[in-house]
Design brief:
- It is built from seven helices and eleven strands.
- The protein is of the alpha/beta class.
- The protein has a single domain, classed as Metallo-beta-lactamase, Chain A, CATH 3.60.15.10.
- The strands form two sheets. Strands 1-2-3-4-5-6 form a six-stranded mixed sheet. A five-stranded mixed sheet has the order 7-8-9-10-11, with no helix packed on it.
- Bound molecules: zinc ion (ZN).
- The site of zinc ion has 7 residues, from helix 2.
Length: 269
Amino acid sequence: MSPAVAPEPSAPFGSWAGGQITPNAHCLLQGNPSPMTLDGTNTWVLLPPGGTEAIVIDPGEDEAAHQQRVVDHVAERGARITQIVLTHGHHDHSEGAPRLARLTGAPVRAVGAGHDDLGDGDVLRVSGLEARVVTTPGHTADSISFALPGDHALLTGDTVLGRGTTVVAHPDGELAAYLDSLERIRALTGDGEVTSILPGHGPTVPDAAAMVEFYRLHRRERLEQVRAAVADGKRTADEVVAHVYADVDRSVWPAARMSVLAQLEYLGV
Ligand SMILES: [Zn+2]
């Protein structure tokens, strides 16, 4: 089976720098690039033009300079941060939340990690802007996305990234849930509610439908490869990783191993 070809990302590696992406969404890129965080963590500020209240999605890793930059950015626009929300609990998204909460007095809202106060369909409102919670478990059990109807955009955290593909972080993440979440996002792109994706890492995705299709194809192909590796006598997760992810940089093998464990669980092996 030939590998799925990723849709052209909007910016080549190294050139993504964040900025004002939609009328209501501004990305402040944290300076923490790595094989797992790609260009770094995208901290999203939701603030309508002329608005006085802002939502921050994913404050990033705990880093005084980054969280202060978020506060300063909003203050320079004549607004203040009134809500902090998390796409999921991984440290590269959530670790800076307590610091940002101390700096702003804003509450932190999320699913999981003692924050179970956001649920599917909840609508966050600031200064006339609406962001609707879409639960998208799979990367982790607590992964959620946020739909911005006014911008036809979906903030996906690590469920769909700006380049490459994501990890199903077994045992917390589950492949069946992840595949269901891709179908949910696909349905949103199909009816035109969502045309672009604002991811947790990497550049924004201007063609959401094409990227979701790529993700679905990629997952099906990897699953077939894992199935074939097992049929071929590969038994341990490490053996399957070495076989199936031979073309992938070894620095991401530990992450690939989690995805393989999720796939073996899905296959009932
Ligand atoms: Zn992440």
